[in-house]
Structure formats: structure tokens, C-alpha cells
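2024-03-11 09:14:02 DEBUG pipeline.ingest accepted 1 chain
2024-03-11 09:14:02 DEBUG pipeline.ingest length=57
2024-03-11 09:14:03 DEBUG pipeline.predict start
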Amino acid sequence: MSKLLKKALEEERNHYTKKLISIGACQQDILHKMTITELRKEYFYFFRKDKASFKNK
């Protein structure tokens, strides 16, 4: 894999991990075991859930 692609994947993983930790969705040790696809799905699940709760208030 090229260095550029590896860096992009690492940055994406870090982004989703930080966001999920900041909203209290998961613990850090669990997040590091997840794939980027799993992290993305978890992030969008919780992000959309949070957005929906703000609209209903």
C-alpha cells in the first residue's frame, strides 16, 4: 500500500475514534479493535441519533 493511502486510512481511523470517544459511544480499547468500516458505521449511527434528538426537542 502506498504511504499516502496508509496515511489517509490512519487519519480516517483517528478521526472516527476521536469523535466516538468524545460523544461517549465506546471505550478506546474497543474502538482500536474495530475496522474503519465499523468505526464509520458506529459514528454515523450515533451522530444521526444525536441529530434526531435535537430536532425532536
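2024-03-11 09:14:41 DEBUG pipeline.report Residues 21 and 37 are 16 Å apart (CA to CA).
2024-03-11 09:14:41 DEBUG pipeline.predict end
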